[in-house]
């Protein structure tokens, strides 16, 4: 796509999840001339969930898209310029920093990386072949297509349990396949899963089981092959939909030439503990799941977005006034 012009601002925030939106609110209140770039998924990961139970204040279970819409409205209340673009590469060597998007180039004195993470895949044969043709990473987006059908969910964390519960109200049968014999998910969700099993009677759990292959006619999935460690045997399950919910990988690759990264997570706390969100490059900060290998919650992403904006303000005041 043709690039139309160059934009300079004091601060660019990359990402429109809870971390990006929160940092935008704080930057605006500090009167920092700021651009927020939404990226490929405006609203971030939370738009994939229909029920949030742990966002303080919203005790009546708000949907992810509604919460993110409210955050967007909150940002829009201020004079933050929101741009729909995807950053493809950066140059953090020179000042101002340069960010190259699909639509525009951006120049700024400070940057907040709030690019979150993307869904991890199984890395098995046929996964690419059936992506979008039976394989999905979002129950809310695609569940409807499997009404009254047999489907499987892979994973044992909060996402997999939530998706299984959600899908059991749509599909005829849901196989939940987890590689260990204990779920990683929160206790409250595990209890909810067992209550749903009691009520809907259409969820079958395969613990200690790994998926080995996805079989079909190249147009749609027909079966999955799993190995049950408990029974030491191969099992074939007839399904038409496969939901992969095995975790996420931070969106950090485009920064790796300049920014210190460990296990795909952007390293922060690089400024003698004074600025908790600073990366190894002064003026470049990171917030949310892209730099958090422990908590990975909406509230922690939002909180670190707040910290990054405060750190960025301090940095700009110290260096550009
Ligand atoms: P994200 O929400 O991942 O947002 C990243 C943003 O960066 C996106 O807007 C994306 O478009 C943008 N971006 C990425 N690459 C680029 C690029 N190259 N250029 C420009 N922009 C880019 N947490 C809870 O606390 N409660 C829940 O109930 C809950 N439910 C969840 C349900 C599901 C199904 C999933 C997947 C996660 C859930 N989480 C929940 C976790 C929560 O969604 C994340 O912790 C949170 O969204 C992280 O926020 P973030 O802003 O760091 O990143
Ligand atoms: P997660 O917590 O990392 O769980 C991933 C699950 O997939 C684990 O059970 C893991 O197994 C399994 N897994 C990983 N790699 C696998 C592979 N190659 N093959 C098979 N299974 C594999 O990921 P998540 O569930 O997506 O959650 C991500 C973050 O978002 C978490 O911090 C979570 O708390 C948050 N979140 C919160 C909510 C909520 O609050 N309601 C909802 C959704 C997500 P092991 O257990 O053996 O490692």
Question: Would you kindly provide a written description of the structure presented here, covering whatever features stand out?
Answer:
Its cofactor is FAD. Keywords: Disulfide bond, FAD, Flavoprotein, NADP, Oxidoreductase, Redox-active center. This protein folds into 2 domains: 5-118 and 248-317, 3-Layer(bba) Sandwich (FAD/NAD(P)-binding domain), CATH 3.50.50.60; 121-244, FAD/NAD(P)-binding domain. It has helices at 18-29, 64-76, 127-130, 139-142, 158-168, 187-200, 298-319; strands at residues 6-14, 34-37, 81-83, 87-91, 97-101, 105-113, 117-119, 135-136, 150-154, 173-177, 203-206, 209-216, 221-228, 233-238, 241-244, 248-250, 261-262, 265-266, 284-286. Helices cover 25% and strands 28% of the residues. The chain is α/β, with parallel strands linked by helices and 321 residues long. The site of flavin-adenine dinucleotide has 36 residues, from α1 and α7. Residues 14-20, 37-42, 44-46, 48-49, 52, 54, 86-87, 114-117, 159, 251, 254, 288-289, 296-299, 301 line the site of flavin-adenine dinucleotide (FAD).
